[in-house]
Design brief:
Blueprint (H helix, E strand, L loop, with lengths): L2 E5 L3 H14 L9 E6 L1 H10 L7 E5 L15 H7 L1 E5 L2 E7 L4 E6 L2 E6 L5 E7 L2 E9 L1 E5 L7 H4 L11 E7 L10 E4 L4 E6 L6 E5 L2 E3 L2 E8 L5 E5 L5 H8 L4
Parallel strand pairs: 1-2, 2-3, 3-17
Antiparallel strand pairs: 4-17, 5-6, 5-16, 7-10, 7-14, 8-9, 8-13, 10-11, 11-12, 13-16, 14-15
């Protein structure tokens, strides 16, 4: 098995990479059968974006803090662990944004696409799903659409629901909603086309963020899952990503 080792810019991750290369050698990342990402969840997200759509399975080992998307760091029997790992195939969200000046931008999000107010005044946003206006005016700090894999990230912090990988659902979650005060969001079919229209954009400017790609002063933002693009993560059988997402719903 040919393995390429990628490390976050930390002393711990760099030392782990050096030790693993000494044990197993190293292949070029463009030709290796498997990529091993050493770091935390942030580095895993960075690695996913770097190799998105390039048909490279990624096996993460935690050299960071939380490590929700990572396997336990161990140096022994790594090829055997990778061979026995369970794959999880993820599809990103594709964001199309237009700005108040007529510009356009596109980006992919593995976790979520979020709209966030830029200044002190709350944002006003109209929400349509598959061409039907579902919420004429949401007054809020922001709103996001999450993938199932990303439902335990920002979406969960905003009190959105955790979604199992196989559910084929996208959480739509408000961030500090003021009106409608009791609206807590929605669960949408995976194939939904979601359109956000920013109301009063000059007075209440809004930024759109696809993972870490930010577009300022947006006018409209369209989001949908892109199943033409995929990535594969590998997890130890006793701690699969699906199991982690289910278990997260029962944590205090």
């Amino acid at each position: 098995m040919s393995i390429a080792f990628l490390a976050a810019d930390t002393d711990v991750a760099r030392a782990a990479r050096a030790q693993l290369i000494a044990l197993y050698g190293e292949a070029d990342a463009d030709t290796a059968e498997t990529l091993v990402a050493l770091g935390g969840d942030g580095f895993m997200l960075e690695t996913q974006h770097r190799y998105l759509g390039r048909n490279r399975p990624i096996y993460g080992m935690n050299c960071g803090s939380v490590g929700f998307l990572m396997n336990e760091y161990r140096e022994d029997a790594l090829p055997e662990r990778i061979a026995a790992a369970q794959p999880s195939v993820l599809h990103p969200l594709r964001m199309h944004a237009t700005t108040v000046t007529g510009g356009a931008a596109e980006a992919l999000a593995i976790n979520e696409v979020s709209l966030l107010r830029e200044q002190r005044q709350a944002a006003k946003i109209r929400i349509s799903v598959d061409g039907t206006v579902r919420l004429e005016e949401l007054i809020c700090d922001g709103v996001l659409v999450s993938t199932p894999a990303g439902s335990t990230a920002y979406n969960l912090s905003a009190h959105g629901p955790i979604v199992p990988l196989t559910a084929n659902l996208l959480p739509l979650t408000p961030i500090s909603a003021f009106r409608p005060r009791r609206w807590r969001g929605a669960l949408l079919p995976g194939a939904s086309d979601v359109l956000f229209e920013v109301l009063e954009p000059e007075k209440r400017p809004v930024a759109a963020v696809a993972d870490y790609t930010e577009v300022r002063d947006v006018l409209t933002v369209r989001v949908r899952e892109d199943r033409t693009v995929s990535l594969m993560l590998l997890f130890d059988p006793d701690h699969s990503l699906s199991e982690r997402i289910i278990a997260e719903q029962f944590t205090a």
